[in-house]
Design goal:
Low-confidence stretches of chain A: none
GO molecular function (chains A, B): glutathione transferase activity
Oligomer: homodimer
Number of helices of chain A: 8
Distance between the termini of chain A: 36 Å
Number of strands of chain A: 4
Helix content of chain A: 40-55%
Strand order of the largest sheet of chain A: 2-1-3-4
Largest sheet of chain A: 4 strands, mixed
Protein name (chains A, B): Glutathione S-transferase
Radius of gyration of chain A: 17 Å
Pfam family, one (chains A, B): GST_C_3
Keywords (chains A, B): Transferase
CATH class of the domain at 84-196 in chain A: Mainly Alpha
Strand content of chain A: 5-15%
CATH topology of the domain at 84-196 in chain A: Glutathione S-transferase Yfyf (Class Pi), Chain A, domain 2
Structural class of chain A: alpha+beta
InterPro entries (chains A, B): Glutathione-S-Trfase_C-like, Glutathione-S-Trfase_C_sf, Glutathione_S-Trfase, Glutathione_S-Trfase_N, GST_C, Thioredoxin-like_sf
Largest interface: A-B, 26 and 26 residues
């Protein structure tokens, strides 16, 4: 049986879960409290991070490398288009969300407010949260600007870039950190992704002691 | 004329410069003091980062997306092999160096000691440097372990993973932060990369006020 070692509120795990779901690859989800770094987990992935995907006899780590591998070996539906310039744009935006957005928003809101509580690693840093709130506005505006010109974030086709972005936004939405009123184009885009069957597993996530906000799993939010 | 907006001691710019050099794509190098974030630079790349590559009428950012694009459009020499599992391994290691190694070593040694001085942004943090020194040993051992089983980091062929790793090590080597005595396999591997024509431009880099250490450009180090 294929297995994904993951943590429910990790955006990188969520990107992989959405990719697996779209491609209808069945996996057993194994929750990994990665911050406790057990010896067995470190044997599976010396980087000490989630996600780790056991696929047949292979053990894969690093979310972007996993998603590219899945897209190359299970072509339908195609999440990275064939044209080199379109592929570039998908990868640029994946890096935008997994690096820049993660650093400026996810780390400052989701990790400060929710993950510090879950991992019992201190109290939220008010300054970081204020910075995260301010940067989040800029990112929502950037997404809306992209979506004015395109049906999906990287072009007219749904791609891995949409899943990278939705993975981060869904983690933030779990803690009610998303201002859905700011940009209707972003809300409409998220509603399309949220209604996909591959998203259901994310909407069912529950972290003990930290339930999601009321509209988290609501398709009409 | 193609242009690369870069900073000489950025590992991400160096990875792109090595890729351009291997593929014999001529570019004019334009030094960008990215931390000053001029309005013109932010127009070129809203992420406010280097490298930014102007290739014909296209403006590309994000080093990994740029390198993948270059490898797809200028196939020789191939830096990401065709087999999906080998491609996975190249991408896993690029992420290893650009994310984990960068966070644990480059940021803690190179940025603390050298870039803080260059950007006039404070004094080195002794605790970060001690952590970086300790983690660097672990990473050199991991590289040696890979190189015991393979000719190059990701397999028997030179790939983008070697350039990602060499880009970080060369920045650290500029400031004499690499213990070349720890693992002879790593030194031998670096000597092979260092002697490539694509590496010459990196060895000629000079940052005013912070010259490289004596053996930085020496092929017999």
């Amino acid at each position: 049986m294929n297995r994904l070692f993951h943590f429910p509120l990790s955006p990188f795990c969520r990107k992989v879960r959405l990719t697996l779901g779209e491609k209808r690859i069945e996996v057993e989800l194994v929750e990994e409290r990665y911050w406790e770094q057990g010896a067995e987990f470190l044997r599976r992935n010396p980087a000490g991070k989630v996600p780790v995907l056991r696929l047949g006899d292979r053990v894969l780590s690093e979310s972007q490398a996993i998603c590219e591998y899945l897209d190359e070996t299970v072509p339908e539906p195609q999440l990275i288009p064939r044209d080199p310039m379109k592929r570039y744009e998908v990868r640029r935006l994946c890096a935008w969300f997994d690096d820049k957005f993660h650093h400026e928003v996810t780390a400052k809101l989701h990790y400060e407010r929710l993950m510090k509580k879950v991992t019992k690693s201190g109290y939220p840093d008010g300054k970081a949260i204020r910075e995260g709130v301010a940067r989040f506005k800029y990112h929502l505006d950037y997404m809306a600007w992209l979506l004015e010109q395109r049906r999906w974030l990287a072009g007219d086709q749904m791609t891995l870039a949409d899943f990278a972005a939705a993975a981060h936004l869904s983690c933030l939405d779990y803690g009610a950190d998303v201002d859905w009123h700011r940009q209707s184009a972003v809300k409409d885009w998220y509603a399309k992704i949220k209604s996909r069957p591959s998203f259901r597993s994310l909407l069912a996530d529950q972290v003990p002691g930290s339930p999601p906000h009321a509209d988290y799993a609501n398709l009409d939010f």
